[in-house]
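Retro notes - structure team

What went well: the batch runner handled both jobs without manual restarts.
What didn't: labels got mixed up in the shared folder, which is why I'm recording both outputs here explicitly, each with its sequence directly above its tokens.

Job 1
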Amino acid sequence: MVMMGPPGGGAFGGPSATQSSASAGLPFAGVPSEMQDGASEILKKEPVHPEPEFTFHRLALRKSRLNLRSLFENRRIAALFGLFFLAVETITALMGPVLTQQGIDNGVMEQDRTALYRAVTLFGLIIVVNAATSFLRQRWNGKLGEDIMYDVRLELFSHFQRMGLDWYTSEKSGVLLSRMTSDVEALTLLVNEGFVNLVIQALTISVVTFVLFSYNPVLAVLLLGLVLPPLVVMTLWFRAVSERGYADVRDRIAVVLADLSENLAGVRVIAALNRRRQNAESHRNVVGAYLDANLYTARAGAIYGPVTEGIGIAAQAIVLLVGGWMVVDGSLQVGELTAFVLFVNTFFAPIQQMVQLYNTYQQGQSGLKKIGDILSTEPSIVESDNAVSLPPIHGQIKFEAVTFRYDDGPEVLRDINLTINPGETFAFVGPTGAGKSTIAKLITRFYDPTSGVVSIDGQDLKAALIDSLRTQLGVVPQEPFLFHGTIRDNVAFARSDATEEEINEAISHVGLTEAVAQLSDGIDTLVHERGVSLSAGERQLIALARAFISRPRVLVLDEATSSLDLRSEAHIEKALDGLLEGRTAILIAHRLATAMKADRIAVIDDGRIIELGSHDELIQLRGRYAEMFETWSSHSETDESRAIRSQSD
């Protein structure tokens, strides 16, 4: 059995990353063995959540801008039922002052007990109807709101999956995280509570205004004429101020999450370089900017709230004064004045509540705009309308006059012309930044060339369905990413329908069978997030097994051994011997030990192919590759490298 050495330790040999994390002050990555039984019992009691039924369409881009109206497009009937319940609830809630007026004028003032009892009975009936309607409305609209948010979360996550790699190089992960968390939460609050309450208050104001005019048009005109102008002025001011403020709040919280995400990801470097104090101070400034943005909006609300409340109190006083004169003159009944005063309070209560509702609305609208900006961003890699499905490929890869640059930067590749034959192992070597990894990204169509054509078996990749291309490719990056889950989950990541026999075969093919067998849970052993419980060599072997199980026709290895120690590298190289057999293989090589396995080698420098041939041919050429090999050989201390050097000489 081959035991993995440093760096990394891991579950198969040496100290685990969990132990290292504990000593470095990192969050614990797993459940202690002595607590495992208890944790298993708790998990057994957890409810079973079904898998979400959602179909991902690579080109199913949103055709219209995301807004409040578009959120309800697929659930219009449900929204109409919700509005019906809302209308009934609001109208029944406003019947109180009317029944009070009827009870006073027709019952108390006329000394008619029957009329009084009738008003009280209707009051009780209205209470029951209002309570039942409120219950139905909250349940119905609550489910409607959560269903809408479910759609938004899935659409946003699906769009993240759709976007090209170039987009992720310009976007911070913390900012994207804020779109899925704080922005969606603000939108949830708007849809579930803010929007419903906004409709209730608007409907209340409309109904109350109608009732006031039906009681006494003169008093109603006087009331609205005195209070509406200052209310409109204050509302327009608050709208402008809060809109700017909450847009700033959404931006600042995104910066806070981005800074937090970066510090958590780089905590080992921070601890090693003793940057904890400086980074804490820097985060203090970031959080302080977020605090300032919140205080700005809070100050605006502190001005708007008391002013509107004062206007409402003044309005009640005016109504009481003028209405009292009308009662004395006999042009208004006592019950009508009572109802009028009650309705004035009902009229201004929604306006005062709209301060908080408008805050919710602005936060939700700001979050909606941020999410809409992402959903309206088109992916850089798209399929043409007449894209065709690639048949089983043989593996001939051809570059024809390919030039490439990232965004508006300088040219990374210049006029590349190259043909890689089916079943050939082809290596690209060269200095850092020469364009080696860019070639691998063009083959997998993570990017499209700025000019020229990249084709497989004569088919331009731009004219092929992306799924039909990538299902026939295997990619092993320099730093393999393992997801939180078991070894089984990570090996079968490219093929969720893989059988246990196929998984074991892949593990055996890369030489991990004996190591996995030593674990108590075998292939069901948890590897934790990013595979922190494994060494670098073990993570790379699992990545190779993941590539093997998908049975790719073309395999791309992007400096897959550059970060490994020599012992781990030797084990990886041995696994590669079987993995590369019968496949077209692209090796982006940092170490020449990997490149020498290739049938042909291309030396890339400054975006151009300056040398091309087999290892022996390039050594005899005495050019750049020969210089690189001489340098590599002189720094290598293994007997194997000395033997290879002597044979080449």
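Job 2
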Amino acid sequence: MEPEHDVDNTLLERLRREIDNNLTNDQFSVEELAKNMGMSRSQLHRKLILATGQSVSQFIREYRLQLGMTLLKAGTLTAAEVADRIGFGSPTYFSKCFNEYYGYPPGEVKNKLGKIPSESDRATTVNRSGTRLPTRKPLLLKIILAGVVLLVIGMIYFNDTGRNGVAADRNDKSIAILPFKNLSEDRRNEYFSEGVIEAIRTSLSQIRELRVISRTSVEQYRESAKSAREIAQELGVSALLEGSIQRSENEIRIDVRLVDGITQEQVWAKSYDHELKDVFAIQAEIAQQVADELHTKLSPEEKSKLSKTDTDNPKAYDLYLKGVYEYRTYTNKGTHHAIGLFTQAIALDSNYARAYAFLANSYIGLATIFGAELSALEGLRKGKPLIDKALALDPDLDEAQMLMGFYKLYHDWDFEGAEAAYKEAITSDHPDALALYIDYLNFTLRHQEAMAFAEHLNVKDPYYPNSRIILSYVYNNRLDEALEFSESRLKMFNNYSTLDSHGFLLLRLKRYNEAIVYFNKAIAFEGIRYPRMLGWMGAAYAQSGERQKAVEIINELKQRLARNEKGSIAFFIAVIYSALNEKRPALLWLKTAYDSHDMEMPWLLTEPQFYTLHEEPEFQQLAKQVGFK
């Protein structure tokens, strides 16, 4: 057996080697580092704890400060210059950390040495205990060069709050647009404030060089008292855009402020007092100014997109914003309101591509297992002409491309066509498109690819409410990491999606009683007995030996199907029968689900309760009919 200290040294040597191999790659990220070492970020963290007794952030922090000491002893740089060289965004913060670590501030280093450093002093490294470690100058330079790259990567860990493991360095081109304050007397104008922010975010998201955190990840900071630095560190961005909006009839006032996420200094600010019809020009100007201040290089196409508007009709735009606001309540009532508002917007502007896309999405929403009002075919068929119209008006519209992928997958069971459309949609890093593409990859058993995209989505949108990380961990058999991530999510979110995913994970972990608790919590959250939750709850009862309770849920679902209720009911009846190890009725109900074109059928190969059916000829034939190869 290899000695433990050799294992530790091998880990650290591999870590240094991977960094050395990418010294000139300025795009080298922590995700790539962990991937090259064959582990996740959390695995790397745990291994370093075992090897050094320190967390990654502690290890990197001390290394940085030791490098800072070396540079200060060389006597050629000021403390502020050293702070800049080793990745500290603020000289004040560097001085504070240095003082805590060494017991005196950076300015006292020369006094502690007692003289101006000689050449021999400059080639000496001092560790925390004060031991001098002679080095040769070429080696020192190599160490410093390697250290700088390591520290840039390490900053991601150092600024971590323990939730995401990502943060930006001072040169990172990334931004989060915080919820603007609605200063209007009419609180119902909240939708307008949200819409303006979304328009600016959409424009900036089209710049390839700029990373923009999505709406769902910043929502938690609406009433937050945290500092700009704290928020920037948690979201892993270098800049924040703050602001307020006040609207009175057709008059609007918009105040915006761009803040450095490291120094908390104001980079740019401006106030706009205009009529409502000027809102398009204001949004475009703000996006352009932010791009300029972050020193992003824009292609001619990107410059054109920044000034592009979806409609020139202020009234249509106002209706559209109201529709989006209602749609994002994710309730049946809100979806119906949204359909009416989008329809009115299109009546005022028949060329409003984004309104067509959202109208299509609303109809499809009524057919999902959560809307459960329309059948899959009904919802998708209502949406298809609207998707076609949106793409005819704007072939590059990511939301429309995403919906086309969804239609091809769930209506046509055209897997190749769906993937082509999804790939078009994800070029802008649209979070919903990424999530749907991850589902597709898991459906087709490409679990490692799905994991890579799930991790990318988690970096792009750390607080995406229906994170695909948990399912991807499960399908890659990384159950401990799935549980760690899922439990951290439960501390942040109390929504249906999080409860749904956590219950699914517990079912896979064979912690059946706990799974049932979370399925009941999900049902209680909205007061709706979703077939999905009932199906998995029935599977948990079946697997735990409570056959009678599983049968009771089957009977409930059969009664609801007889009443012509929607929501992939036949599919989930099959789930419970399979969990009861009753293969014949499970296969018969899957045939019923196929005949009724249940929305869940693309999950056929990936539903864990069906794993025991995979070798059955009838199951294999059904998979081919759905479109699996």
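One thing worth noting from job 2: Residues 111 and 423 are 60 Å apart (CA to CA).
We'll revisit the folder naming next retro.
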